[in-house]
Amino acid sequence: MSKLRAFRKKLTLSIIVFVIIYTFYLRWEWLIENVSFLNSLYSFVFDHFIEKTLMGMFLSSMIGGIFIIFLPIEFQFAYYFSSQHPLILVIAVLLVGNVIGLSIDYLIGRLFGERLARKLLKKKYDKFLNRMQGKLGSFLIFFGNIIVFPIELFSVAVGAAKYPYKKFLIYTVLGKIIKFALMAYLMIEFGLSLNLAFLLSWI
């Protein structure tokens, strides 16, 4: 009976996750067209994004840092690299916005993820907790912010493991600074850029 109950809980959870993913990824156009608040917000962000304003830079990097939105920070940096703004300002704005987005992921994991992780991992939860709160967790946060890595989802897991937020913030900022510095060097050295049409094809 206990196994059946556990199976039902997992099935219910899977259905909920599927509905959320379906709503945000497959029905986002319908939501934007039919929910006035989302429509206004989308138009505001998109207009600033197209014009490469500092506001658009900040909002896109913050929203792109939330785990249910797919807008990689690497693409954004490459896109804004060719803007009229000084490079150091581009890095600063993208850094602040993206860190806020990842902090939202962390907070979601902190508030709701522990219970979910316990149900999914069961006896393995304590092992997961020890690894995430130890050197492995720190390494993955730091290195995951440098390379192309699903750091948004991982930030939710970090929050669920109750990893200290101050350390999370430090390793995230350091990793992102190194990422942006490496990308800037490569783009200056090899003259790389990203046009708007290519970027929008990923949104």
Plain-language structure description:
The protein has 203 residues and is mostly helical. Helices cover 79% and strands 0% of the residues. The C terminus is likely disordered. The N and C termini lie far apart (45 Å). It is built from eleven helices and no strands. The protein has one domain. Helix 3 packs across helix 4, helix 4 runs parallel beside helix 6 and helix 5 packs antiparallel against helix 6.
What's the end-to-end separation, in Å?
45 Å
Structural class category: mainly alpha
Any idea how many domains? 1
The largest pleated sheet is described as: none
Rg calc: 19 Å
Name the overall outline. Answer: flat
What is the chain-wise order of helices and strands? HHHHHHHHHHH
Number of strands: 0
Overall average pLDDT? 81
Question: What is the helix content?
Answer: over 70%
Helix count from the secondary structure assignment: 11
Portion of residues in beta strands equals under 5%
What ranges have pLDDT less than 50 throughout 5 or more consecutive residues? 196-203
Could you give a quick summary of the protein structure above?
The chain contains 11 helices and no strands. By secondary structure, the protein is mainly alpha-helical.
Features:
flat, mainly alpha, 203 residues, disordered C terminus
Write the layout of secondary structure elements.
Elements: H1 2-26, H2 28-34, H3 36-50, H4 54-64, H5 73-80, H6 87-121, H7 125-133, H8 135-144, H9 151-160, H10 165-190, H11 196-200
Helix pairs in contact: 2-3, 3-4, 4-6, 5-6, 6-9, 6-10, 8-10
